[in-house]
Design goal:
Belongs to the TonB-dependent receptor family. By secondary structure, the chain is mainly beta. It has twelve helices and 47 strands.
C-alpha cells in the first residue's frame, strides 16, 4: 500500500466519515496504487474536477460559433432566446425603468434568483446602483468562448442567488495569434442600426499564455410610433393641459376632454446603447506544481432611453372656497371655467394636469463603469496525495452616473401656475422663461462593490470497485456593498416624478462547502453537496444537494437531482430608500383614470432569506443504432417559500374595492371612501410572505449526420410549462405587462447544412398562445373572463457562413424573416404589447467579417 501523509489521511477520514453517516456505505481499505494522471475539468454545477461533462444536472452549452451564426451582439439577447427563459427580463427593448440594464430570467423566477458567474466565479451586481443582479451589458460577446446554463438549483455549490440555476460565462483563453471581427445590422425600415468591432490577441510563452481583447459596440434606437402596428398610447396628460378634467377648445370654452396624448411618438422600442470593453486572461506556470491564473474586465456603458414629456399632476387651491385659508396662493375660476363645469372638490382644490411637451421629452442617460479583477493560484498538495488546491481573490466594482433631462420641478411649477394663470390655462405654448423656471436636469449616482476570497481542496479520497471517490471542500468570504443617491430635488419630493430616498448598505458572509462524488457501482454514481453560510444580516443558512446518475444501458443514462437553496436579501431590499413606482393598474369599478398609478415601494432591514426546494429528473439517450443522435428529457420543479416579494397590488385593489376586504385596504393603503383620492397612499412593502411554485419539462434533440453530400446538424429545444404560481396567483399560460410571459410551450428549432467552406442555417423560435393575465369586471364589479388571447408567434431566421480561406470568414443573416408582428396584450407594458417577450423591431439584416493571422 502506498505511504500517505498524515494530512491526506486526516482529510480523507473526515470527509469519508461525513459521507458514510448520510449514505450508510462502508469501505474496508484504500486502493493500493495511485491512478495515472488524466485531464480533468470543472463542470458548471460542481467544484469536483472530472473527465466526463455529463453530470446529474442538466446543462445547456452555447458556443461562440453558434452565437456568431445567429447574429447575437449582446449576452442578454442570446440568453433570452432560450426556451428555459420566461417572465420579462429587462434588456434592449425595456424603455421604462431599466436604466439600460440587461438581465437574465431563468424559468421566469426573477433575475435575482439566477446566479451569473464569469469563469466560474461571481460577477459583481451592476447597473445604476445598489443592484440585485448582474448587468449583462458588462460582458462583451467578443470575449465569450461559451455559455453554460445550469438548469437546477445550485445553492449548495455556489451559495445565494442560484435558486433557479446558474449562467456561467466562459471567456476566451489560451489563444494564440490575432483575430479581428466586425459585425453590423439594421432593420428593413432603415433604423435600429447596431454594430460591434473587436480585436483579440494572444501569445504563448514557454510557461503560459496571455490573451488580450478590446470590443466596441453601438446600438441605435427605434421609436415606437415608427411601427405601423403600434397601438397609440393615449394618456390623459395632454400638452395644452386640463383643469378639473376639462380642456380649452378653439373658442376658449372649457369642455370635457375627449382625447389624449399619444406618447408612443416619443418612446423607444429599442433603446440606444454604446459599450467599450477591455479584457485579458492569463495562465502562468510558476513551477511544475503551481499555476497562476488571472482575468480582467472593464466595460464602459453609455445608454439612453426616451419617454414622452413629463406628466405633471398638481392640486391647486381655488380662491374664494371656504377651505382656502387667507393668504394661501390660489387660482381664480373665471366665467368660462365655471360655465364649463369646473369646480373645487370637497377639499377646496381642483386638479391640473399637463404633458410638458414645451420642455421636451424625458431623456434618460446612463454612464456606467464596471471593473472586475480575479486572480488565483492552483497547485498540487504533494506527490503522494494527488490532491489539488486553489486559492483566489475576486474584486468587482460598478459606478454609475444617471440623469434625466427635461425633468419638472413640481414645487416651482405650482408657484408658476399661481403666478401666471393666463399663460398656463390659455392652451398656448409656455414662454422660455417659464420653461427655464420649472425644468431641471435630474442627476443621480450609484454603485456596487464586491470582494470575494476563496480557497479549496479537491481530489480523490480512495478507490471503490467501480472507481475513485472524489471530493471538493473549501471556504469563502464575500463582502458586498451598494449605494444609490437620487438627485436632491427627487429626495426632497419637489419633482413631478416619484419621491425617492437614498440607499446605502453592506453585508458580509462566510461560507464553508463540501462535495463528494461516489461511484456506487459501474453504473450508479452519487453526487452529494453540503454548504453552510453565515450572513452578517439575517444569520445562517444550510443547503444540500443529492444527485444520481444511472447508466441503464450503453445508450441510456438516467439522472436526477434534489436540492435545497436560498437567496439572501439584497442591499436594495434591506436598505433601499422608499421610492415611488408608476405601475400599470386598473380600477375594477371602471372609474376613469390614468393607466399608471403611483405606488410607494418600501424596504425592510429585517428581511429573512428566501428558501427553496428543487427537483430535476430525466434521461440522456444516445442510441447506438443511430450514430450522431442524442436526446435529453428532464422534468423540473422549483418551490420557493419565505420569498421576498411585494404583494400583487392589482389583486389588493380588486380585493379592497370589489371584495370589500378591509385587510387588503389597510395593507395597500387604499381608502375606498376617498373618491378620486382613494389611491393617493397606495403602498407596497417588501415582506417574506411570498411564494413561487413552478414545474415543467425540457426536451432536447441533437442530430448530426451526412446526407446528399452535405454535413447536417439538427437541434430542437422544447420547454413545456406545467405550472407557474406566484403568491397564490396562477400565471400558467398567461401574459401581462407587469409580469411578462409564461407560455405553456416554447420551442427552438435549427437545421444547418454545410459542405467544405460554407454552411447555411435555418432557425425558428416559437412562443405559444397565452391568455391575457388581466381581469375585466362587469357593471356590478364581478370578474369576467380575460379580454383576449395573445396569439402564438413563430419567428424565422436564416444565416450563412463562408470561409474565404483559413484566415477569413464572412457571415450574413436575416432575423424575423417574415416580419412577424408582436401579439397584442390588453395590459401590455408598451405599444400595446410586451416588448421584453415579443420581437417589436421587425425584420433585421446583419453581416459580419472575421480575420485571423
Amino acid at each position: 500500500m502506498t505511504q500517505r501523509s498524515l494530512l491526506s489521511t486526516s482529510i480523507k477520514t473526515a470527509l469519508f466519515a461525513s459521507f458514510t453517516i448520510s449514505s450508510g456505505i462502508s469501505v474496508s481499505a484504500y486502493a493500493a496504487e495511485e491512478t495515472a494522471k488524466v485531464e480533468r475539468i470543472e463542470v458548471t454545477g460542481s467544484r469536483i474536477q472530472r473527465q466526463d461533462m455529463e453530470t446529474a444536472s442538466p446543462v445547456t452549452v452555447i458556443d461562440a460559433a453558434a452565437i456568431k451564426a445567429e447574429g447575437f451582439t449582446s449576452v442578454d439577447e442570446l440568453l433570452q432566446a432560450q426556451t428555459s427563459m420566461a417572465g420579462a427580463a429587462v434588456g434592449s427593448s425595456t424603455n421604462n425603468g431599466a436604466d439600460g440594464v440587461a438581465q437574465v430570467d431563468l424559468r421566469g423566477m426573477g433575475s435575482q434568483r439566477t446566479l451569473v458567474l464569469l469563469n466560474g466565479r461571481r460577477m459583481v451586481n451592476s447597473g445604476s446602483g445598489a443592484d440585485s443582479a448582474v448587468d449583462l451589458n458588462a460582458i462583451p460577446v467578443a470575449m465569450i468562448a461559451r455559455v453554460e446554463i445550469l438548469k437546477d438549483g445550485a445553492s449548495a455549490v455556489y451559495g445565494s442567488d442560484a435558486i433557479a440555476g446558474v449562467v456561467n460565462i466562459i471567456t476566451k483563453k489560451d489563444f494564440e495569434g490575432f483575430q479581428f471581427d466586425v459585425q453590423g445590422g439594421m432593420t428593413d425600415k432603415s433604423d435600429g442600426e447596431n454594430g460591434e468591432i473587436s480585436a483579440l490577441y494572444g501569445m504563448n510563452t514557454d510557461s503560459g499564455n496571455y490573451t488580450f481583447g478590446v470590443a466596441y459596440s453601438k446600438r441605435e434606437g427605434v421609436i415606437q410610433s415608427d411601427r405601423d402596428w403600434t397601438d397609440p398610447g393615449y394618456s390623459s396628460f395632454i400638452p395644452t393641459g386640463s383643469l378639473g378634467g376639462k380642456v380649452v377648445n378653439d373658442q376658449g370654452e372649457w369642455v370635457k376632454r375627449d382625447s389624449g396624448y399619444d406618447f408612443t411618438q416619443d418612446s423607444y422600442f429599442q433603446t440606444p446603447n454604446e459599450r467599450t470593453s477591455v479584457f485579458a486572461n492569463m495562465v502562468q506556470e510558476i513551477n511544475d506544481d503551481i499555476v497562476f491564473t488571472g482575468d480582467f474586465l472593464y466595460t464602459k456603458r453609455k445608454s439612453s432611453q426616451q419617454m414622452a414629456a413629463q406628466p405633471a399632476d398638481i392640486m391647486l387651491n381655488v380662491c374664494g372656497d371656504s377651505n382656502t385659508l387667507p393668504g394661501e396662493p390660489c387660482i381664480t375660476l373665471n366665467d368660462a371655467m365655471i360655465a364649463g363645469g369646473i369646480a373645487a372638490d370637497d377639499t377646496g382644490r381642483v386638479n391640473y394636469r399637463r404633458r410638458t411637451t414645451d420642455v421636451g421629452p424625458r431623456i434618460y442617460s446612463q454612464d456606467t463603469d464596471t471593473y472586475r479583477l480575479s486572480a488565483g493560484l492552483t497547485g498540487t498538495l504533494d506527490v503522494h496525495t494527488g490532491f489539488n488546491w486553489d486559492a483566489s481573490y475576486t474584486y468587482g466594482n460598478n459606478k454609475a452616473k444617471t440623469q434625466v433631462d427635461n425633468s419638472i420641478n413640481a414645487t416651482n411649477m405650482e408657484a408658476s401656475v399661481y403666478a401666471n394663470q393666463d399663460a398656463w390655462f390659455s392652451g398656448d405654448p409656455l414662454s422660455q422663461a417659464i420653461i427655464d423656471d420649472i425644468s431641471f436636469t435630474e442627476q443621480n449616482t450609484g454603485g456596487n462593490e464586491q470582494h470575494t476570497f476563496s480557497a479549496g481542496l479537491n481530489g480523490e479520497l480512495f478507490d471503490l470497485d467501480a472507481g475513485a471517490v472524489a471530493f471538493a471542500i473549501g471556504a469563502e468570504y464575500r463582502y458586498e456593498s451598494g449605494y444609490y443617491t437620487p438627485d436632491q430635488v427627487i429626495q426632497d419630493g419637489d419633482s413631478t416624478a416619484a419621491q425617492q430616498d437614498a440607499t446605502d448598505g453592506d453585508y458580509n458572509v462566510l461560507s464553508i462547502f463540501q462535495e463528494v462524488s461516489v461511484p456506487f457501482t459501474d453504473k450508479l454514481t452519487g453526487e452529494f453537496a453540503l454548504r453552510y453560510d453565515d450572513y452578517s444580516t439575517f444569520g445562517k443558512a444550510t443547503t444540500w444537494k443529492v444527485g444520481l446518475t444511472y447508466e441503464a444501458t450503453d445508450d441510456l443514462m438516467l439522472r436526477g437531482v434534489a436540492a435545497t437553496g436560498f437567496r439572501a436579501p439584497s442591499i436594495s431590499e434591506l436598505y433601499g430608500g422608499d421610492t415611488g413606482s408608476f405601475d400599470y393598474l386598473t380600477d375594477p369599478l371602471g372609474h376613469e383614470q390614468d393607466p399608471q398609478i403611483l405606488v410607494r415601494y418600501t424596504s425592510d432591514d429585517d428581511l429573512e432569506a428566501e428558501e427553496s426546494e428543487s427537483l430535476t429528473a430525466g434521461l440522456v439517450y444516445s442510441p447506438s443504432a443511430i450514430d450522431g443522435l442524442s436526446l435529453t428529457l428532464d422534468y423540473w420543479s422549483f418551490k420557493v417559500t419565505n420569498a421576498i416579494t411585494r404583494l400583487d397590488v392589482q389583486s389588493g385593489i380588486n380585493a379592497c374595492l370589489v371584495g370589500n376586504d378591509s385587510t387588503a385596504c389597510e395593507t395597500f393603503g387604499i381608502d375606498p371612501t376617498a373618491g378620486a383620492a382613494k389611491f393617493d397612499n397606495l403602498t407596497s412593502s417588501l415582506t417574506n410572505v411570498g411564494s413561487q411554485d413552478t414545474s415543467g419539462i425540457d426536451f432536447n434533440l441533437a442530430y448530426t449526420f451526412e446526407g446528399l453530400g452535405l454535413d447536417w446538424k439538427i437541434s430542437n429545444d422544447t420547454t413545456y410549462l406545467l405550472n407557474f404560481e406566484q403568491d397564490n396567483e396562477d400565471y400558467t399560460g398567461t401574459i401581462d405587462g407587469n409580469f411578462g410571459a409564461y407560455a405553456k410551450v416554447r420551442n427552438n428549432f435549427s437545421i444547418q447544412a454545410s459542405q467544405g467552406d460554407w454552411s447555411v442555417m435555418y432557425f425558428n423560435r416559437y412562443i405559444g398562445e397565452m391568455d391575457d393575465h388581466y381581469t375585466d369586471y362587469d357593471d356590478n364589479g364581478n370578474p369576467v373572463a380575460a379580454l383576449a388571447k395573445s396569439d402564438a408567434v413563430l419567428y424565422h431566421n436564416i444565416s450563412g457562413t463562408y470561409h474565404i480561406n483559413n484566415d477569413m470568414t464572412v457571415t450574413a443573416g436575416v432575423k424575423n424573416l417574415t416580419d412577424e408582428e408582436p401579439s397584442r396584450v390588453s395590459n401590455g407594458s408598451d405599444g400595446g404589447t410586451v416588448p421584453e417577450v415579443y420581437d417589436v423591431i421587425g425584420r433585421q439584416y446583419y453581416a459580419g467579417f472575421s480575420m485571423k493571422f
